[in-house]
């Protein structure tokens, strides 16, 4: 749904081709969405089949192949509003793949688990550092609505910071041996906790 919503949202005021949409997503939303490049073209095709976007022609820049540009249709504007309202009215429940890793960590040697936890901590620290610098960069752009952009960055920062604190706590507990008895029991049992 988010890919469709973003595409329709960008097409509301512009005629664009797929690569332009990709660049806009990367530049504006790259820190807080995970929309894959290939999904943009798939979604554009589906949106066109459903009558929400239409081909508006082609663009060709010097020495480049021609590119199909798209417009949003009236039905597409209605669909955009429907999807936007759905985002606001839907409660989200997140799942974290790391929890699956914890469920089966007894299958790995302790030193490997320790290394994975350390890597997670380092990745989160790097991500937070990057997010902070990118926020400063974005907020210095006069075309970026600072309060709204800041709110989105802060939302992600709070989640990442919480995850980092949780991961550091996990490392401390693992280092103190708080999971040893249970991990040894699971190793004997040969299963994840049930």
Describe the protein.
With 194 residues, the chain is mainly alpha-helical. Helix content is 66%, strand content 8%. A 3-stranded antiparallel β-sheet has the order 1-3-2. The protein starts with a helix and ends in a 5-residue tail after the last helix.
Number of helices: 8
Count every beta strand, where a strand is a DSSP E run of 2 or more residues.
3
How do the strands of the widest beta sheet line up side by side? 1-3-2
Q: What does the main sheet amount to? A: 3 strands, antiparallel
Order of helices and strands: HEHHEEHHHHH
| Principal-axes shape call | elongated
Radius of gyration: 22 Å
Classify the beta-strand content into a percent band: 5-15%
Whole-number mean pLDDT: 87
Assign the structural class, choosing from mainly alpha, mainly beta, alpha/beta, alpha+beta, or little secondary structure. Answer: mainly alpha
Residue stretches low in confidence (pLDDT < 50, at least 5 long) are none
Spatial separation of the terminal alpha carbons: 33 Å
The helix content, as a percent range, equals 55-70%
């Amino acid at each position: 749904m988010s890919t469709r919503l973003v595409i329709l949202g960008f097409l509301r005021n512009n005629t664009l081709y797929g690569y332009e949409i990709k660049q806009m997503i990367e530049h504006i939303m790259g820190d807080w969405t995970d929309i894959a490049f290939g999904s943009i073209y798939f979604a554009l095709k589906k949106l066109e089949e459903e009558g929400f976007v239409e081909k508006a022609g082609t663009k060709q820049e010097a020495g480049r192949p021609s590119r199909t540009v798209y417009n949003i249709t009236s039905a597409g504007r209605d669909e955009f509003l429907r999807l936007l309202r759905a985002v606001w009215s839907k409660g989200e429940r997140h799942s974290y793949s790391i929890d699956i890793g914890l469920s089966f960590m007894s299958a790995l040697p302790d030193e490997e688990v320790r290394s994975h936890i350390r890597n997670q901590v380092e990745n989160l620290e790097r991500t937070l550092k990057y997010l902070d610098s990118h926020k400063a960069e974005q907020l210095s752009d006069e075309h970026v609505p600072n309060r709204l952009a800041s709110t989105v960055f802060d939302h992600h920062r709070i989640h990442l910071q919480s995850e980092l604190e949780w991961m550091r706590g996990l490392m401390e507990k693992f280092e103190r041996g708080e999971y040893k008895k249970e991990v040894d029991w699971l190793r004997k049992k040969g299963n994840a906790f049930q």
